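Sat 14:20. Reprocessing the chain from the morning session after the first attempt stalled halfway. Input below, unchanged.
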Amino acid sequence: MLFTYHAIDQDGHEREGTIEAPSQEIAVSALQRRSLIISAIASAEKHSLLNFDLSFLGRVSNKDIVIFSRQVATLFEAQVSVLRAFRLLASEVDNKQFATILAVVGDDIQGGSSLSKALARHPKIFTSFYVNMVHAGEESGKLPETFVYLADYLDRSYELVSKAENALIYPAFIITIFFGVMALMLSLVIPKITAVLIDSGQEIPFYTAIVIGLSNFIVQYGIFLFIGLVAGGFYLWRLKKTAQGKFIFDSLKLQVPFIGDLYKKLYLSRIADNFSTMLLSGVSVVEALDITSSVVDNAVYTNILTAVSMDVKGGISISDSFDRHPEIPSIMVAMTKVGEETGELSKMLTTLAKFYNREVTNAVDTLVSLIEPAMIVLLGLGVGTLLAAVLIPIYNLAGGI
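Finished this time. Tokens:
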């Protein structure tokens, strides 16, 4: 986005101009690093019906972060300085928004900020997990290895999550089409056939009467039903934004047959992978638990990890604390216990992460292979039953003529 600004420099002179930045906050930060005191700043872009804000199209994707992490690791291994690496990447990145952010990070580093603090100023791009990993790399002097860990982790995480989500897109699409077809038939097709049956004067079968009644309800009150569904959907969306609502939805997500088991394995894989990656990078156990709880993206497991962190601070072992929560499977408790006793906790967690990755992959493959025929059968039965309920009386009427 383009911003216009009015400011005062160190000599007391008024300055004005424009600056390109992905957000006003970043624009202000960039101007302040130029030793300017900002008196006013506003967007210079005009908005109209024909001029939409398309900044979301330039959002920074997980793929951008993975490629960036690998490039940083390579540059560090080639003994390129942090500042020069960020200047170079800012000029080479295709995503303009990401390029601007990297340039701002470079300015912060040039101004004396550490890399982790510079990245922390952009939480929408670099998560607390990412920032703390970089901080651990700075403390241990293993920044190149840390960025390799980050790229590998993000790559695994993205592949696993996208595979699980893509497996659920197909059934959601089929179910939407199913209800759409049923609604169209009940509101447009069935009423015309119903008129023929009523005019014939013959006795209407019970199952046909049910279909006719449902069709009449859709025709007469369909608009109110639609408004109610929209209002209900909006209410649920707002409820999900609250802490209590998120916990309810996340709990229900884990209880759905088969799908819930898939989500459990996905979250357990994320926990083990996050935890092991941070421990390998030198992050303390308590800090690793706290950060993992914030990025697991499920309120149920977030609460569990927060409780485990509190237990560990109180002197309880991780495995004993895990054992208090039925959501943590016994195999994870046992592997964690072995890791604690042998001093190879990160190695055991890595093994667990690989195990659950395979479990999620197998579950997704099974789900995909079963869903397609099941959805086709469901769609055929629904439409077929609806048509049979009204066509059979018509055939009976034709046969009696």
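Residues 46-57 have pLDDT under 50 and may be disordered.
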